[in-house]
Structure prediction request, 162 residues.
Amino acid sequence: MAVLHPMKSFQSYITEKHEGDGDCMEAAVKLMMRSYTDYYGERFKPASGSPFLVHGLVHGQGSLKGKRFVHAWVESGGMVYDYSNGGENELTQSQYYRIGKIDPKQKGAYFKYSYSDMKKKLLSTGHYGPWDIDMSLEEATMTKRIGRKRKSVSPEILKLLK
Prediction:
């Protein structure tokens, strides 16, 4: 897992697909689960701190330039871990937020979940997210095609979480 160069475009880190096959919500949940269970194989151990699942609105680059959309990642100890779409990207939180123009103070645009909060949301909704984001804040007209919104969690995973 390499720490990526901060000057690359956000598109280099977040490559949401335009056919509805982005997997950021599910990938972030799986990474969180790897911090606390062996279900997905080798444990994920961030350099420091306790990991948090984050759902936030990000600004795209490249073909997504000018589009603001919901994305998910994991944070711990000042680092961001974005394992969406098969990547294993790690950046400092300040680099990631600057590149994606992420505003954690904007009401409805940013939510952080502990492992226990994530489990409650998964069990109560039955899907990977997003859960609390104000979707009216998205600026992309094709947002239904970015990512797999509200992809159902399998009954096996829900049973494991209980």
The first strand starts at residue 52 and ends at 59. The two ends are 31 Å apart (CA to CA).
